[in-house]
Specification:
Elements: H1 30-42, E1 46-47, H2 48-51, H3 57-62, E2 66-70, E3 74-75, E4 85-86, H4 96-106, E5 111-116, H5 127-140, E6 145-149, H6 157-165, E7 170-172, H7 182-185, H8 191-209, E8 214-221, H9 227-239, E9 244-249, H10 266-277, E10 283-286, H11 296-301, E11 304-307
Parallel strand pairs: 2-5, 3-4, 5-6, 6-7, 7-8, 8-9, 9-10, 10-11
Antiparallel strand pairs: 1-2
């Protein structure tokens, strides 16, 4: 019988370019990180921080901010950049909204971000579940601000209205990349559909809660986009009322996701951030390790631009 060489795990790295020096992660309080993760797992809650292997999960956990992944850990879509598993999701847990609120209180969070897998199997895409979770947190922890990072709900604007009416302080929906790359990066997504979701959220939020209501979107760089394409997307987002823009480097989670085409240097992030800011965004966050939910509590409170070659 032939003998096969022992696999060390390095095979998966052979086609990965070496990370440039400017992509670093700060030291964290490991005890705080451990306590946060134990609390989440004891309550059978998921965070996108871990499921999507976010490079900033240690930073956010240690700073008392978490992004909760609602409606399970299985997505009905299979985007090229995402490490979350795809397939047939389990039925919704009706206790999850209250369980999430309990954990937000127990962890002493002051800012909670709620996101979800895509649930195209549900009539409203899970909008009512989002709304129930926001309401549960507001009842139990009235001082905690909530941001939502939603899917596109297949363009269902009534679903958008359900989420906005529950009262998040920020409504976030990521366009992720430029339209020419959607077939590869977001094959089930549509750029114009995403714009419609953001436009409707802004209109409804401003009507219900005034001008303090914020909408937000983010893009990953390094997938093959051009600056001209980025500027077109920035312009479209600004024209549709988006207040906050995040720009970060795409980092390949595993060998099964799309490869990185280019590592964008910090000075280029800074330049793109300034150009985006000139289009009228209230806040632009731009840097290699910036992610949609990174420093969410700071982004929602800022009125300006924060551009950095690191995560600060």
């Amino acid at each position: 019988m032939p003998r096969f060489p022992k696999r060390t795990g390095r095979e998966a790295l052979k086609d990965h370019p070496r990370l440039p020096g400017w992509i670093t992660q700060e030291r964290v309080n490991l005890r705080e990180l451990h306590d946060m993760k134990v609390g989440l797992r004891d309550n059978h809650l998921h965070t996108v921080c871990e499921e999507a292997r976010c490079p900033n999960r240690a930073h956010c956990f240690s700073h008392g901010t978490a992004t909760f992944l609602l409606m399970g850990d299985t997505c009905t879509r299979a985007c090229g950049f995402c490490a979350i598993q795809s397939g047939k999701p389990n039925p919704l847990n009706p206790c999850e909204p209250e369980e999430t609120a309990v954990q937000v209180e127990a962890l002493g969070l002051r800012f909670a971000v709620l996101t979800s897998v895509n649930r195209d199997d549900l009539p409203d895409g899970g909008a009512a579940h989002f709304a129930a979770t926001i309401s549960a947190i507001r009842r139990r922890c009235p001082s905690v601000s909530v941001e939502v990072l939603t899917p596109d709900f297949m363009g269902d604007l009534e679903a958008v209205a359900k989420v906005v009416a529950a009262g998040p302080v920020v409504f976030n929906h990521n366009t992720e990349t430029v339209p020419s790359l959607y077939q590869m990066v977001r094959p089930a997504g549509r750029f114009e559909r995403s714009l419609a979701v953001l436009r409707e959220a802004k209109k409804l939020g401003a009507a219900l809660f005034g001008e303090g209501f914020r909408t937000k979107s983010g893009l990953m760089l390094g997938l093959g986009e051009t600056e001209a394409e980025l500027m077109q997307v920035f312009g479209a987002l600004a024209a549709n009322g988006v207040d906050i823009l995040t720009l970060g480097q795409y980092l390949r989670p595993t060998r099964y996701q799309l490869p990185v085409q280019r590592y964008v240097p910090p000075d280029e992030f800074a330049d793109l951030g300034r150009k985006a800011q000139s289009l009228g965004f209230k806040t632009v966050y731009a840097g290699p390790l910036v992610r949609s939910s990174f420093n969410a509590h700071e982004v929602s409170e800022m009125e300006g631009i924060s551009i950095s070659g690191t995560t600060n």
